[in-house]
Design goal:
The complex is a heterodimer of chains A (about 350) and B (about 250). With about 350 residues, chain A is α+β, with helices and mostly antiparallel strands. In chain A, about 70% of the residues lie in helices and about 15% in strands. Chain A has a 5-stranded mixed sheet with strand order 2-4-5-7-6. Chain B folds into 2 domains: about 130 residues, Rossmann fold (3-Layer(aba) Sandwich); about 110 residues, Beta Barrel (OB fold (Dihydrolipoamide Acetyltransferase, E2P)), CATH 2.40.50. In chain B, strand 6 and strand 7 form a beta hairpin. Chain B starts with a strand and ends with a helix. Classes of the chains: A alpha+beta (about 350), B alpha/beta (about 250). At the A-B interface, helix 5, helix 7, helix 8 and helix 9 of A face helix 1 of B.
Chain lengths: ~350, ~250
C-alpha cells in the first residue's frame, strides 16, 4: 500500500500547514487588537499547537475505529469533552507563561469563544476524516470484491475450457493401441498429434486471443485424430474467407463446437458425415459457421440440452458480456452453429 | 466352432479385437458391424455365441440394441468411459473391457466366458441386463422398437399411452402401436414422472394427452385422450392423475 501511505503523509502535512496558517491569523488578530507581539505569538502557538495535536489524534483514532452510522452523537459528545479539556489546559498553560493582567482578563473572557472554536474545529476534523476513511474503506472493499469476482470468473473460464471429453481421450488411446500392432508408423504419428493437441488444451491463459490461423491448426490436429478413429465415415471441409485468418479468437473455442458437431453428426446419422467450418470476416467481426448433418426425427429430444453448446455460450458471455454470440438453427437435416467473435 | 460378431463404430476398435481373437483358432468372426442396426441384422442372421459390443454407437446404443433381440447372445462390452454403464456391467454382463485394454485383460474376459459357457443360466444374465434398473441417458428420452425388420426410435413425448400385454408392453403413438419386451414397472421408472402417470395396473398415460375424465362404474374413471382412446383409471390411479394435473 505505498500509494496509501503517500496520501496519508500528504494529508497530515496539509493539516499541519492549515494549522500554521490559522495560528498566524490568530497571532495577527491578537496583535492588531493591542496585545504585544510576544503575547500574541505565545497565545497562538500554545492554543493552536495543542489543538493541532488533538486534531491529529482524532484523525489517527478515526483511522482505526469509526463509530457506525447513526452514532454521530458519540462523536459529538466526545468533541465537546475534548474541547472542554483543551480550554482548561490552555487556561492553565497561558496563565503560567504570560503574566500581563490585561491579557489574563481577556483570556478569561474569551474562554467561551475559544471553547466553541475548538469544538467546531475538532468536530470538523472528525467529520472530514470520518468521511475520508469511510470512503477509502468502501473503495478498498469494492476493489477486493472486484478482485475476487475476477478470480472466480477466471476459474470458471478455466474450468469451461478444460472440459475435454474422456470419451475422446480413451477412444483415441484405443485406436493407437490398435494401430501399434498393425501400423506402428501411423500409431507413432497419432501419438504425436494427440500430444500436440493435449498441449494446446493445457495452455493456461483462457482469455488469450490467438489468430484464427493458429486456432485452425489445433482444430486440424483434433480432426486428424477423429478421422483416424472414424475412418471413412468422417470428412471435413474448412474454408476461410479473405482476411479472416488474421482475426483474433479466444483459444480452443472452436474445438468443442466442432466436437459437438461431430458427436451429433456421427451418432445421430449413419453413413458418411461431412462437417464444414466456414470463417468469414464481415462488419468488423469474425463469423464462423459450423454445419453438421443430424436426424430431425430422433434429435428432438436432444434439442433441450442445447446440443451441448451451453458451456461455449457461457464462456463467450464471460469474455464478451454478450449472450448473442452463438446462434444455432436446424434446417432440414443440417444443423448449423454460428459463432461471432467481435474484433477489437 | 464359436461364432463371434464385433459391433463397434470405430474400425480400429474392431481390428484390435480381431487381432486379439487371432490367437483363438476355435473362434471365428462371422461379421463386423459399425452400428446397432447392422448388429441386430447380423445377430438374427448368424445367431452368434458371443458378441463384442460397444456402448456409444450411431443412432442406438449398445443397450438399446440388446433390447431388440429376442434371444440375446453372450455379451462382452467394450467401452471407453460410461459411468452409468459400468454399474450395469458389474451386475450383469459376462465381462466388460475398458478401452484401451491389454491382451491379458482380453484373454481373461474370454476365459471367463469360456468357463461360464455350458453352465446353465448364462443366457439369463443377458436378459437380466435388459431388465436392469440402470439406464443409459438415451433410454430416458426414447424407446427403440422393432417391427418386422424395421427399427423405430420413438421419442418419449410421442408416446400417448402404454398398455400391458402379457410379457410385453404395447406402446401407443399417433403412428400406431408397437410391442416392446419390457415390464410396466420398467417404464414407470424410466419415463418422466412429470408427464407420465400409471393410472391403472395395465396403463401408463401421458398427461398432456388427456382431454377429459369421466366417471365410470363404481369408484373408477375413464380418461379420454386426444386420440379418442378411452383409458381406464383405477381407484388408486385416480388420485395420482389428479395430483399431477394439479386438480
Amino acid at each position: 500500500m505505498p500509494a496509501q501511505q503517500i496520501t496519508n503523509t500528504k494529508m497530515s502535512l496539509l493539516i499541519v500547514f492549515m494549522w500554521i496558517v490559522w495560528a498566524c491569523i490568530q497571532a495577527w488578530a491578537l496583535a492588531w487588537s493591542g496585545f504585544p507581539v510576544q503575547t500574541a505569538v505565545i497565545d497562538s502557538l500554545v492554543s493552536n499547537g495543542l489543538l493541532m495535536g488533538i486534531g491529529l489524534a482524532v484523525r489517527n483514532m478515526l483511522r482505526f475505529y469509526r463509530p457506525g452510522r447513526g452514532k454521530f452523537f458519540y462523536i459529538f459528545a466526545w468533541n465537546f469533552f475534548i474541547a472542554a479539556i483543551w480550554v482548561v489546559a490552555i487556561k492553565w498553560a497561558l496563565s503560567q507563561l504570560i503574566t500581563d493582567p490585561a491579557y489574563l482578563i481577556f483570556l478569561n473572557k474569551s474562554l467561551p469563544v475559544r471553547f466553541f472554536i475548538a469544538f467546531l474545529m475538532t468536530g470538523w476534523m472528525a467529520l472530514i476524516h470520518w468521511l475520508l476513511f469511510t470512503f477509502e474503506e468502501n473503495r478498498e472493499n469494492e476493489k477486493r470484491k472486484a478482485d475476487s469476482d475476477k478470480l472466480a470468473k477466471d476459474a470458471e473460464l478455466y474450468k469451461l475450457r478444460q472440459q475435454l471429453h474422456p470419451h475422446f481421450l480413451f477412444n483415441s488411446l484405443n485406436s493407437i493401441s490398435s494401430l501399434t500392432g498393425s501400423r506402428p508408423e501411423e500409431a507413432r504419428h497419432m501419438i504425436q498429434q494427440l500430444a500436440d493437441f493435449l498441449r494446446g488444451t493445457l495452455k493456461n491463459d483462457e482469455k488469450m486471443l490467438v489468430s484464427l490461423e493458429e486456432e485452425l491448426h489445433y482444430l486440424q490436429l483434433y480432426l486428424d485424430i477423429e478421422k483416424v478413429r472414424f475412418g471413412h465415415r468422417l470428412s471435413t471441409e474448412i474454408k476461410t474467407g479473405e482476411g479472416s485468418i488474421q482475426s483474433q479468437i479466444p483459444q480452443m473455442l472452436l474445438q468443442p463446437i466442432v466436437e459437438n458437431a461431430i458427436k451429433f453428426g456421427l451418432y445421430d446419422t449413419m453413413g458418411t458425415v461431412t462437417i464444414s467450418v466456414n470463417a468469414v470476416r464481415e462488419n468488423g467481426q469474425l463469423a464462423i459457421t459450423i454445419k453438421n448433418p443430424f436426424d430431425p426425427q430422433t434429435s428432438q429430444s436432444r434439442q433441450g440440452t442445447g446440443f451441448g453448446l451451453n458451456s461455449i455460450q457461457r464462456r463467450l458471455y464471460l469474455l464478451y458480456a454478450r449472450k448473442d454470440l452463438i446462434v444455432t438453427k436446424a434446417e432440414g437435416n443440417i444443423f448449423t452453429t454460428i459463432v461471432i467473435i467481435p474484433q477489437a | 466352432m464359436i461364432k463371434a460378431i464385433l459391433i463397434d463404430d470405430e474400425p480400429l476398435a474392431r481390428s484390435i479385437i480381431a487381432e486379439y481373437l487371432g490367437n483363438y483358432s476355435e473362434v471365428s468372426i462371422v461379421q463386423e458391424c459399425g452400428d446397432g442396426f447392422e448388429g441386430v441384422k447380423a445377430i438374427t442372421q448368424h445367431q452368434p455365441d458371443l458378441i463384442f459390443l460397444d456402448v456409444q454407437m450411431p443412432k442406438i446404443n449398445g443397450f438399446e440394441m440388446l433390447e431388440l433381440l429376442e434371444t440375446p447372445p453372450s455379451v462382452i462390452f467394450t467401452t471407453a468411459f460410461d459411468e452409468y454403464a459400468m454399474k450395469a456391467f458389474e451386475a450383469h454382463a459376462v465381462d466388460y473391457l475398458l478401452k484401451p485394454f491389454s491382451k491379458e485383460r482380453f484373454d481373461k474376459a474370454i476365459k471367463k466366458w469360456m468357463d461360464s459357457r455350458g453352465k446353465s443360466g448364462e443366457k439369463k444374465e443377458v436378459e437380466s441386463l435388459v431388465e436392469t434398473t440402470i439406464h443409459s441417458p438415451e433410454q430416458h428420452n426414447r424407446v427403440v422398437v422393432k417391427t418386422g425388420s424395421k427399427i423405430r426410435i420413438i421419442p418419449m413425448h410421442e408416446i400417448h399411452y402404454l398398455e400391458a400385454d402379457d410379457d410385453y408392453v404395447k406402446i401407443h403413438t399417433a403412428e400406431g402401436s408397437y410391442l416392446k419386451k419390457k415390464t410396466m414397472g420398467y417404464f414407470e421408472e424410466v419415463l418422466d414422472k412429470a408427464h407420465f402417470v400409471r393410472v391403472h395396473r395395465s396403463y401408463i398415460l401421458q398427461v398432456q394427452q388427456v382431454t377429459r375424465i369421466e366417471p365410470y362404474e363404481k369408484e373408477s374413471h375413464l380418461a379420454i385422450l386426444k386420440s379418442g382412446a378411452r383409458i381406464p383409471i383405477s381407484k388408486t390411479g385416480y388420485p395420482k392423475l389428479k395430483s399431477i394435473l394439479g386438480i
